[in-house]
UniProtKB/TrEMBL annotation, chain A:
Signal peptide: none annotated. This is Geranylgeranyl diphosphate reductase, chloroplastic. It catalyses: phytyl diphosphate + 3 NADP(+) = geranylgeranyl diphosphate + 3 NADPH + 3 H(+). It comes from Sesamum angolense. GO terms for molecular function: FAD binding; geranylgeranyl diphosphate reductase activity; geranylgeranyl reductase activity. Its EC number is 1.3.1.83.
TrEMBL record, chain B:
Residues 1-23, 51-85 are annotated as: Disordered. One of its GO terms (cellular component) is membrane. Gene3D superfamilies: Chlorophyll a/b binding protein domain. It is a multi-pass membrane protein. SUPFAM superfamilies: Chlorophyll a-b binding protein. Residues 63-74 have a biased composition (Low complexity). The keyword Transmembrane applies. This is Light-harvesting complex-like protein 3 isotype 1, chloroplastic. It is found in: Membrane.
Length: 459, 256
């Protein structure tokens, strides 16, 4: 399955790598220069960094680190696992991470959003011919990224990390204990990048704190040919109290089947009920299909209380970089991995110097927060306003019918940049938003009142 | 039979009525109104499918065979294979019924049927839509491409909404504001001797006026005070979660 040829990709670091590889390894003389800053203790052996977790975050970090000339070790416990995941990535990720198009299973060009009262809106009328949402298989993508990191010079270690010993002093290394091929081994490194996902062991070892998680539950259903044709380029999103009290349910097409799933934060014990509800809502379209797999996974809702401690930095799901409202995490994982790797390369000047916590905070955390906090905050507001009640959801679907909203949404999603809008249209959109919200919430209130009335009548 | 249906969901109710009344059938009718209709459907479903195991991929009756693994939470385990003993038949909740109403035509309300005195009776349209959405909420229907719903609340003109919902509330609030205003003006006048016109020139009085108006607008029910406090907390909660990692920067010495 992984027999795709690795096309030589023009990577920004390629030139750097070539020049570094030709350098000979420096002798083991330790020079202590009385420095102005405490972090300029120059040791001649290169900085050793371990990236724990070989998903998009870990592989991107490892790739950048290795290209920067740092001794990188990438730990992955299960390289062949198919992760339960939507598998959708935005257009900008294809460019920024040079992902070849043969990895893409499907190009989704149309999306339907269905409200609780079955108002259906076609989302995607404004997409240009070259714009689409790529659906990939996670195992294919992860494998590609890992191999690329290996090509740049990272050492792939297939192992399960069991324990991480924190250093006793400022200059002593971290000890990573792991099991590989049924043998216990350990490795000493100077810096650790924790990219091991929602149940991160690295986070536990540095006592980074807990975060609330949503649970995403999905069933992969193989459909008969004619039903599959409908989902060729189409993904669907269902909102409603019946399918999820605080999130949405989806039908995403995969390589040769569809994934039907839902998620929730506050009501995890009822997830099976929600799954039944979504299956019911999609009934005519999945009639005759067979379930080939059932999977579930936690999705972090917000960043951990601590993302950097000592010389350990968390990236991706381990740090909690998943947007609300859409639950998108792959792009942000890869981007944060890359940013963290670049931060380490910069702060250590290509592995020549040791780095401290302040370096990680300044170069990685600050930059990340400055660049992406607004996006995350905006999506949090959207989720709070529109996913809270059926009235809000109806308003959301009504708004999505407007072309301007569609265009702005897709541009922001596909390119991860605040889309440039027409101020007049923005005002119109704001007024439409307020109008829809008011109307749908009024209807919602009337529904509650009529329910109370019928209840009192019965009694 | 009714006991079997309701036993999974209402265990606490089953023993007491049977003991006290000895007529479980009758006593359940009393408890009907207390449960929203939605829960009843799930009870029926759970009981009706008990024990009817199904083989894999039976074509027409139970089209989707589910082989659910027990541990469907937590970290991703190795690929879930079909080793679970209980193969549950797929339950499609809800009946085949769709929303039936003579005025609901082609996925939208036929406005001609709402005509009253030659004009559309928008209040009736709103009522009909409320009923439909309530019905949909209780009986979630699968969306169908053949009969798409195209009704949008924006079809109902803005003045219909205003006339029915905004104006009564506005009247109420204005009434409250007027009463408060009159008594506050009298009270301040009696205390300080400053007349109404002179009060409006004073900064403190203008502030009081602003507070009174804001109070009338924001606090309409007793619960609103709590709601406002929670709202304030909620808006800043997400920010706090992001800032949390910066909080322990100062107490810790750099370079741990």
């Amino acid at each position: 399955m992984a027999a795709h040829k690795v096309t030589p990709v023009q990577h920004p670091f390629q030139n750097l790598t070539q020049s570094l590889k030709s350098k000979t390894f420096q002798p083991q003389t330790i020079k202590c220069i009385p420095a102005v800053r405490t972090s300029t203790i120059i040791i001649s052996s290169k900085l050793r960094v371990a990236v724990i977790g070989g998903g998009p975050a870990g592989s991107s970090a490892a790739e950048v680190l290795a290209s920067g000339g740092i001794e990188t070790y990438l730990f992955e416990r299960n390289p062949e696992a198919a992760k339960p995941c939507g598998g959708a990535i935005p257009l900008c990720m294809l460019d920024e991470f040079s992902i070849p198009s043969h990895l893409i299973d499907r190009k989704v060009t149309q999306m339907k959003i269905i409200s609780p009262s079955n108002l259906t809106v076609d989302f995607g009328k404004t997409l240009k011919p070259h714009e689409f949402i790529s659906m990939l298989r996670r195992e294919v993508l992860d494998n590609f990224l890992r191999l690329r990191a290996k090509e740049r010079g990272a050492t792939l270690i297939k192992a399960l990390v069991t324990n991480i010993e924190l250093p006793i002093s400022e200059k002593s290394p971290y000890m990573i204990h792991y099991i590989s091929n049924n043998t216990h081994s350990s490795l000493a490194v100077d810096v650790i990048v924790g990219a091991d996902g929602a149940n991160s062991k690295v986070a536990k070892s540095i006592k980074a704190g807990d975060y609330t998680c949503a649970i995403a539950f999905q069933e992969r259903i193989k459909l008969p040919e004619d039903k599959m044709k409908y989902y060729e380029n189409l993904a669907e999103m269902y909102v409603g109290d019946d399918v999820s009290p605080d999130f949405y349910a989806w039908v995403f097409p995969k390589c040769d089947h569809v994934a039907v799933g839902t998620g929730t934060v506050c009501s995890k014990q009822n997830i099976k009920q929600f799954q039944r509800a979504i299956r019911n809502r999609v009934k005519p379209k999945i009639h005759g299909g067979e379930i080939i797999k059932v999977e579930a996974h936690p999705i972090p809702e917000h960043p951990r209380p601590t993302r950097v401690r000592g010389r350990v930095a968390l990236v991706g799901d381990a740090a909690g970089y998943v947007t609300k409202c859409s639950g998108e995490g792959i792009y942000f994982a890869a981007k944060s991995g890359r940013m963290c790797g670049e931060a380490i390369v910069r702060a250590s000047e290509n592995g020549e110097k040791t780095i401290v916590e302040a370096d990680l905070r300044r170069e990685y955390l600050r930059k990340w927060d400055d660049e992406y906090f607004c996006t995350f905050k905006f999506l949090d507001i959207l989720q709070r306003v529109f996913y809270g009640s059926n009235g809000g959801r109806e308003a959301l679907v009504e708004l999505c019918g407007k072309e301007y909203v569609q265009r702005m949404t897709f541009e922001s999603y596909l390119y991860k940049k605040l889309a440039k809008g027409n101020p007049l249209e923005d005002v119109k959109m704001a007024m439409d938003t307020v109008g829809s919200l008011i109307r749908c919430n009024i209807v919602g209130r009337e529904m509650m009142d009529s329910f109370d009335k019928t209840m009192t009548l019965r009694m | 039979m009714s006991m079997a249906i309701f036993s999974p969901k209402i265990p606490s109710l089953t023993p007491s009525p049977s003991q006290s009344h000895g007529k479980p059938h009758v006593s359940f009718k009393l408890y009907f109104p207390l449960r929203p209709t939605r829960k009843l459907r799930f009870d029926l479903l759970v009981s009706s499918d008990n024990g009817s195991g199904v083989a894999a991929t039976v074509p027409d009756e139970t089209p989707v065979s589910s082989e659910e693994s027990v541990g469907s939470n937590g970290s991703p385990p190795p690929p879930l294979t079909a080793t679970d003993p209980v193969a549950e038949p797929v339950k499609f909740v809800g009946g085949e019924s769709s929303f039936e109403d003579p005025r609901w035509v082609g996925g939208t309300w036929d406005l001609k049927q709402f005509a009253k005195d030659g004009k559309t009776d928008w209040d009736a349209v709103i009522d009909a839509e409320v009923k439909r959405r309530k019905w949909m909420e209780n009986n979630p229907q699968s969306s169908s491409n053949k009969n798409p719903v195209v009704f949008d609340t924006s079809i109902i003109p803005w003045w219909a909404w205003m006339k029915r919902f905004h104006l009564p509330e506005a009247e109420l609030l204005n009434g409250r504001a007027a009463m408060i205003g009159f008594f506050m003006a009298y009270f301040v006048d009696s205390l300080t001797g400053v007349g109404l016109v002179d009060q409006m020139g004073n900064f403190f009085c203008k502030t009081l006026l602003f507070v009174a108006v804001a109070g009338v607008l924001l606090i309409r029910k007793n619960e609103d005070l709590e709601t406002l406090k929670k709202l304030l907390e909620e808006t800043t909660f997400y920010d706090k979660q992001w800032q949390a990692t910066w909080q322990d920067e100062t107490p810790n010495s750099p370079g741990k």
